[in-house]
Design a protein that fits this description.
The chain is an alpha/beta fold. The protein has helices spanning 16-27, 59-72, 135-138, 154-164, 181-188, 234-240, 278-304, and strands at residues 4-12, 32-35, 47-48, 57-58, 76-78, 82-88, 91-96, 101-109, 131-132, 147-150, 170-174, 193-196, 200-205, 209-214, 219-220, 224-227, 265-267. The chain has two domains: 4-114 and 233-304, FAD/NAD(P)-binding domain (3-Layer(bba) Sandwich), CATH 3.50.50.60; 131-227, FAD/NAD(P)-binding domain, CATH 3.50.50. The strands form four sheets. Strands 1, 2, 5, 6, 7, 8 and 17 form a seven-stranded mixed β-sheet that branches. Helix 4 (154-164) packs parallel to helix 5 (181-188).
Length: 305
């Protein structure tokens, strides 16, 4: 692991909720780091006509302006995906794909929750029967077995490395690998079999996954396939910390102060559920930023006494 950086508040997500949280937290004179990439926000390619005080604004312009505002008040930004979040005494520890480790007293979760799907034959029918979207949740069911991970970003690479310590043969199937040098180095020194430039045509099986058929006709006799497209799923990271979800297990449950069930963890925006509106995301980000800053300040005061 590389260097460790210490912040009062870390915000995961650089969309409207995360940016508004950063603006308000920074104004309360605490150190703030925002993790995320503007172009991954659902707002980036949108046009906004129903936001109060804005007319026919482009999402990209709004995000760029929000980032400048947050930076103007002292927020820092880091374009890196998170691999895992753990707790250590009164702080949270975040391991990133770049090897940088971050610690903070308050954490704000402000990204969406959509699971990217392959949309190939057999995927829908075999979910829960060998098709999974969460290595951390289901990996232990495949001890000693032949499995595959699909994806070319941090979630897939880290998932494959995790499975390499549990399963038998582990295949990583991807168009291309878009990960940090540190993560790529770990992959190259592991026993993961990487299939670059490959795509899945079909997931085969009756009551259980039995094989994967690649676009070149190659068949892999796997009992499990983990679909990890994109960055490490924030919902996956949150639930590993004990954050409570709603009754449908789709969104993070918060109170009116955007507090989750875990002290020090706040949430805002789409991850808290509909409606999918910028106005809602900004409002929740404001509340989360203010309360997270106050929480971090309180812990610092207690530590000084």
């Amino acid at each position: 692991m590389g260097e460790t950086e210490v912040f009062d508040v870390v915000i995961v997500g650089a969309g409207p909720a995360g940016l508004q949280a950063a603006i308000h937290a920074s104004r309360k004179k605490v150190s703030v780091l925002v993790l995320g990439k503007e172009n991954k926000s659902s707002l980036f390619r949108a046009h906004v006509e129903n936001m109060c005080c804005l007319f026919n604004a482009t999402g990209q312009t709004m995000l760029e302006t929000g980032r400048r505002q947050a930076e103007n008040f002292g927020s820092r930004f880091l374009d890196a995906d998170i691999l895992r979040i753990t707790t250590q005494e009164d702080q949270f520890v975040l391991d990133t794909e770049s090897g940088t480790q971050l610690t903070c007293k308050a954490l704000i979760l402000a990204t969406g929750t959509a699971r990217n799907k392959l949309r190939v034959k057999g995927e829908k029918e075999l979910v829960g029967k060998g098709v999974s979207y969460c290595v951390d949740c289901d990996g232990n069911f495949y001890r000693g077995e032949e499995v595959a991970v699909v994806g070319g970003e941090s979630a897939a690479a880290d998932g494959a490395l995790t499975l390499a310590e549990i399963a038998g043969t582990v295949h990583l199937i991807c168009d291309d690998l878009k990960v940090s040098d540190a993560l790529l180095g770990r992959l190259e020194n592991s026993r993961v079999v990487v299939h670059r430039g490959a795509k899945i045509r079909e997931i085969a099986g009756e009551e259980q996954v039995s094989a994967l058929v690649l676009d070149d006709g190659t068949t892999l006799s796997t009992t499990g396939i983990f679909i990890e497209l994109g960055a490490k799923g924030l919902m996956e990271l949150a639930t590993s910390l004990g954050v409570a979800l709603d009754d449908d297990m789709r969104f993070i449950r918060t109170d009116k102060g955007q507090r989750t069930s875990v002290p020090g963890i706040f949430a805002a925006g789409d991850i808290c559920g509909p409606p999918w509106q910028v106005a809602k995301a900004v409002g929740e980000g404001c509340v989360a930023g203010l309360n997270a800053a106050d929480y971090a300040k309180k812990l610092k005061r207690l530590g000084d006494n």
